[in-house]
Amino acid sequence: MDEIIEYMLREDEGFGDITSNALIPENKVFYAKLISKDDGILAGIEIIKEMFLEYGIEIISSKDDGDAIKKGDILLEIEGNARRILLLERTALNLLMRMSGVATVTNRIVAKVNDANPKVRVAGTRKTAPALQKFDKLAIAIGGGDPHRNALDDMVLIKDNHIAVVGSVKDALLLAKENVSFSKKIEIEVESVEDALIACENGADIVMLDNMSPEEAQSTLNALKEKGLRENVLIEISGGITEDNILDYAPLDVDIISLGSITHQASSLNFSLDMD
Questions:
Q1: In three state form, how does the secondary structure of the chain look?
Q2: Which of 71, 95, 141, 236 is the most exposed place for a label (fewest CB within 10 A)?
Q3: pLDDT at residue 104 above 80?
Q4: Would you put residue 19 in left (φ > 0), alpha (ψ -120 to 50) or beta?
Q5: Nearest-5° Cα angle at 52, 27 to 4
Q6: What pLDDT sits at residue 129?
Q7: Does the annotation count 127 as an active-site position?
Q8: Distance between CA atoms of 74 and 218, rounded to whole angstroms?
Q9: Which residue is catalytic, options 33, 49, 112, 127?
Q10: Could you read off the pLDDT of 121-149 as tens digits, one per residue?
Q11: 53 HSE (CA, 13 A, CB side)
Q12: How far apart are CA 200 and CA 203, in angstroms?
């Protein structure tokens, strides 16, 4: 994450902030405050504070990650070199606004799902912004969701393209169990009742019901229960699920509902940094 932040700052700075350097004395010290223009959940403030501290900016006060915030709230107060504050301003705001937007929509969806079925865990996916995956995943966790996989090495997740190359659900699972450490869980995507049964019978730890309607998912769950296989695995449902339709899936007897819209459709909150 530090390397990504360094790149963000270099990208924004270019060969120097010619405006601030032309207008502001080199050693001018100023106070600034970061203000929210939206309601939501704050995420990323600890990262932003570290960014300012690295540049010698004093932190006077701040809210915490996970705090519920309202329009007009002061999120952070800082004091230090005015040129450095302005150098960091846009990068800090962009990252904080995005992370808070992801945390806010995650928190809202988690609350809805918990009201319908408190046993279900809401998770994100790898549909994150390029280079921002770790930040998006952290924002999901701050918002009360599960980040799912943080990277490809976290666990085995056999998707439709893997199965297409290998040939079958059963063969894919057998290869995974043969070639991957016992310490890694194995999850597999299925799109039919038949493949769900095969997955449960051949050692999958997690079975993802992919792109199924609520009715199709319920039929699959019924088939697993009839065969006595439901208790052996975690059931995740994913694919085409959004905040608008998630309550159609929440009452089902599943363990996880994952949705990419938490990250790839989240709107950033609106914050501003005011020099005072």
A1: CHHHHHHHHHHHHCCCCHHHHHHCCCCCEEEEEEEECCCEECCCHHHHHHHHHHCCCEEEEECCCCCEECCCCEEEEEEEEHHHHHHHHHHHHHHHHHHHHHHHHHHHHHHHHHHHCCCCEEECCCCCCCCCHHHHHHHHHHCCCECCCCCCCCCEEECHHHHHHHCCHHHHHHHHHHHCCCCCCEEEEECCHHHHHHHHHCCCCEEEEECCCHHHHHHHHHHHHHCCCHHHCEEEEECCCCCCCHHHHCCCCCCEEECCHHHHCCCCCCEEEEEC
A2: 71
A3: yes
A4: alpha
A5: 125
A6: 82
A7: yes
A8: 47
A9: 127
A10: 999 998 888 888 899 999 999 999 999 98
A11: 11
A12: 6
Q: Which two tokens stand for residue 24?
A: 């502001």
Q: 123 is written with which tokens?
A: 């998770």
- pLDDT digits 0-9 by tens, 236-276: 999 999 999 999 999 999 999 999 999 988 899 999 999 98
Which single residue is written with the structure tokens 């502001």? 24
Q: Determine the residue type at 2.
A: D
Single-letter amino acid, residue 121: R
